[in-house]
Amino acid sequence: MLHERGVIVYLVSGGFRSLIEPVAEKLHIPPSNVYANRLKFYFNGEYAGFDENEPTSRSGGKGLVIRRLKELHGYQRLVMIGDGATDAEACPPADAFIGFGGNVVREEVKKRSAWYVTDFQELVSHLNVQTK
C-alpha cells in the first residue's frame, strides 16, 4: 500500500541482514533500503562476529540511520514504526514514532509513541482510509 502511494520504505533493524533481506524481498523493498547488521564468518565457515561498521550494531544506530536518510534524501517527514526501545529512541530524528505491540506490549514504547497499535490490521486500515 505504501509503495502504491509512492512512499519509499526502509527496514532499519538491529537484527541480521541475512534474516531481514528475504522479508524485504517479499515486501518489495530493495536491499539498498535495508539497514541491519551483517554477520561475519571465517573462511572455514565459523562465526567471526558482526560488522561493527554497520550503524545498527551500536547504541543510537537507528537514529543515526534516520538522520543520514533525511540528510541524503531531504525527507521532510520520516515516520518510524517499531516495537522496541531502540525504535522509539530514533524519534527524533524521526518526525513521528508509531509503536507496535502486536507481539508484546512494552510500556516504555507505548509511552513514547505518538500512536500505538497492537493489531497490524489497524495500521493497514488507517493507511487505507488515508489513500481514499
From TrEMBL:
Keyword Metal-binding belongs to the record: yes
Superkingdom assignment: Eukaryota
Molecular function GO terms recorded: L-phosphoserine phosphatase activity; magnesium ion binding
Record keywords, A-Z: Amino-acid biosynthesis, Hydrolase, Magnesium, Metal-binding, Serine biosynthesis
Gene3D superfamilies given in the database record: HAD superfamily/HAD-like (3.40.50.1000)
Enzyme class at the top of the EC tree: hydrolase
Documented EC number(s): 3.1.3.3
Pathway: Amino-acid biosynthesis; L-serine biosynthesis; L-serine from 3-phospho-D-glycerate: step 3/3
GO annotations of cellular component type: cytoplasm
Cofactor(s) this protein cannot do without: Mg(2+)
SUPFAM superfamilies hit by this protein: HAD-like
InterPro entries the record matches: HAD-like_SerB, HAD-like_sf, HAD_sf
GO BP terms: L-serine biosynthetic process
Protein name: Phosphoserine phosphatase
Species this chain originates from: Pararge aegeria (speckled wood butterfly)
Source species taxonomy: Eukaryota, Metazoa, Ecdysozoa, Arthropoda, Hexapoda
